[in-house]
UniProtKB/TrEMBL annotation, chain A:
Record-given protein name: Heme exporter protein B
Family to which this protein belongs: Belongs to the CcmB/CycW/HelB family.
Biological process annotations from GO: cytochrome c biosynthetic process; cytochrome complex assembly
Record keywords, A-Z: Cell inner membrane, Cell membrane, Cytochrome c-type biogenesis, Membrane, Transmembrane, Transmembrane helix, Transport
Keyword Endoplasmic reticulum attributed: no
Record has Endoplasmic reticulum as a keyword: no
Chain ranges passing through the membrane: 21-41, 53-73, 94-121, 127-150, 162-182, 194-219
Gene Ontology molecular function: any one: heme transmembrane transporter activity
Database matches in InterPro entries: Cyt_c_biogenesis_CcmB, Cyt_c_CcmB_bac
Bilayer topology: Multi-pass membrane protein
From TrEMBL, chain B:
Annotated TM spans: 6-28
Organism: freshwater metagenome
Keywords carried by this UniProt record: Membrane, Transmembrane, Transmembrane helix
Stated name of the protein: Unannotated protein
TrEMBL record, chain C:
Species annotation: freshwater metagenome
Subcellular location: Membrane
Keywords associated with the record: Cytochrome c-type biogenesis, Membrane, Transmembrane, Transmembrane helix
Protein name: Unannotated protein
GO molecular function, one term: heme binding
Cytochrome c assembly protein domain segment(s): 24-182
Length: 222, 45, 251
């Protein structure tokens, strides 16, 4: 299972290194969202700085949607889905590999987006440990739930509109949790943030388990 | 106090109206689809 | 046996049966009793006034909306585990009914909130998580009704149905923390949790029975409708033959 996961993750990441879709399209989109927030909210007032954690995670969520669409688009061309199914790879491994690849891309994106926030919104960064742990757990949550719901929507004509409808309500706790944890870290009271990390860990484990068991039947059917 | 009866009536109308409308829709669709399915496929009644 | 069944179903093209008719009559009596107790016999609340009467329909609707969600998750699990299409239909039927109930709960909750809190919407934990529940249910229904192969949409919908209750629990938990960490839950102090007794408690009890009967009646009808839809889906040819036979009978 682990071997298969690494195989799939390696394949997806190599594909990304060659095509640079996430780097050339998703990342600029995320930065664009940050700029749009500045247009919508007056940057001279303190609104932008106060709302930074929320705006940051909204930008991450929207970018994650694009990254996930991309992750399943590369499987849908040239009958790749059939090839994947017939490859004899463990479905759980395929799931974990996809999650891993999306997570790696999101972590890179989050780091660059973080630099963007610091530069554009002149935010002050504090509480590094909590920020890092929150990012990792939230990313794992988004990638696990996103990959599971991504395969639910994959291969359908309505997939572009269906995935946000399915995924965003499910990710509401992750948005709330990661935003609160970031706020706690930036306000210098990290003890308020850790319960949220715990909640997101439960969320992530739930979706990893659901994906490990649910991916097989989902790949089989279509 | 009497002003609040408006809220009460509105809520009850929505509950009864909503459930009623949904029931009627279910029944009507059931009737129209029943006609298209062979009776022995219907395992009730 | 089959001829008996045929005779019984002749001229009766509906999702009804003797059982549902009895249940339906009971439900109507229940609703009448609910109106009598909830609107006429029970006294206004000391602190809430007449507005408390909304709760006699609001609270039971909320309870049965949750029961519908549980049935959806259980049905989806049984379908994925055992491949039982009977449970799959239970999941689908109860998801749709739960959606209707959740919408009713949201609207009546807002109407109750207006005189109680002065606004239709507050970012109260209960209201917020209920609105998320409605969106989750709409997602399930969207997948279940996809214009795709029957196997595809039932299996994919079942995955979503299976995760429905865990999602609701996590959403509720997160929203509750979110609201209570930053402000005290004063809004709930005179809310649904306030204690009630006597005729008011009895009215609420009548509400549970009446709404429960409506729920059961709807569930049976919706289940049969879903079964019929599947029959049409699976065997379009069969239906065409039946239609032609029916035409032959008429002429």
């Amino acid at each position: 299972m682990i071997h298969d996961a690494l195989l799939i993750a390696g394949k997806d990441l190599r594909l990304e290194l060659r095509s640079r879709v996430a780097l050339n399209q998703v990342l600029p989109f995320a930065l664009l969202v940050l700029v749009l927030f500045a247009f919508a909210l007056d940057p001279d007032k303190s609104v932008l700085t106060e709302a930074t954690p929320g705006l940051y995670w909204i930008a991450v969520l929207f970018s994650a949607l694009l990254a996930l669409q991309r992750s399943f688009a590369i499987e849908s061309t040239d009958g790749n889905r059939d090839a994947l199914r017939l490859s004899g790879l463990d479905p759980a491994g395929i799931f974990l590999g996809k999650v891993l690849a999306v997570s790696v891309q999101l972590v890179v994106l989050e780091a660059l987006l973080g630099v963007g926030v610091v530069v554009l919104y002149t935010s002050r960064i504090d509480g590094w440990v909590l920020l890092a742990v929150t990012s990792v757990i939230a990313t794992a949550s988004i990638a696990a739930a996103g990959t599971l719901y991504g395969v639910v929507a994959a291969g359908l004509r309505v997939r572009e509109t269906l995935l946000p409808l399915l995924l965003l309500p499910v990710l509401a706790p992750v948005l709330i949790g990661s935003t609160r944890a970031f706020e706690a870290a930036l306000n210098g009271s990290p003890s308020e943030g850790w319960p949220w990390v715990g909640l997101m860990s439960i969320f992530a484990s739930l979706y990893v388990v659901a994906g490990i068991f649910g991916f097989g039947p989902l790949l089989e059917e279509s | 106090m009497s002003g609040n009866w408006g809220y009460v009536v509105a809520a009850w109308v929505i509950v009864f109206g909503g459930l009623g409308a949904y029931s009627i829709r279910t029944i009507v669709r059931g009737r129209s689809i029943s006609k298209q399915v062979r009776p022995e496929k219907r395992r009730w009644s | 046996m089959t001829t008996q069944l045929d005779a019984a179903t002749e001229g009766l093209d509906s999702t009804g049966s003797r059982a549902t008719r009895v249940l339906g009559v009971l439900a109507i009596f229940g609703l009448a009793a609910l109106a009598l107790f909830g609107l006429v016999l029970s006294p206004p609340d000391a602190s809430q006034g007449e507005v408390v009467r909304i709760l006699y329909v609001h609270v039971p609707s909320a309870t049965f909306a949750y029961i519908g969600c549980f049935l959806t998750t259980i049905g989806s699990a049984m379908f994925l585990w055992r491949g039982s299409s009977w449970w799959e239909l239970v999941a689908y039927a109860s998801a749709e009914i739960a959606t209707v109930f959740t919408a009713i709960v949201l609207v009546t909750g807002m109407i109750w909130g207006r005189p109680t809190w002065g606004v239709y919407w507050v970012w109260d934990a209960r209201l917020t998580s209920t609105s998320m529940l409605l969106l989750l249910l709409l997602g399930y229904l969207a997948v279940r009704r996809l214009p795709a192969d029957h196997d595809v949409r039932t299996k994919r919908a079942a995955i979503i149905g299976l995760l429905l209750v865990p999602n609701v629990i996590i959403v509720r938990q997160s929203v509750q923390w979110w609201r209570t960490l930053h402000q005290k839950p004063t809004l709930l102090a005179n809310g649904v949790g306030a204690k009630i007794e006597g005729l008011m408690l009895f009215s609420l009890f009548v509400g549970f029975i009446a709404i429960g009967l409506v729920f059961a009646w709807l569930l049976i009808h919706r289940f049969r409708l879903a079964w019929l839809e599947d029959q049409l889906d699976d065997a379009g040819l069969d239906a065409a033959i039946a239609e032609r036979r029916a035409e032959g009978d008429v002429s």
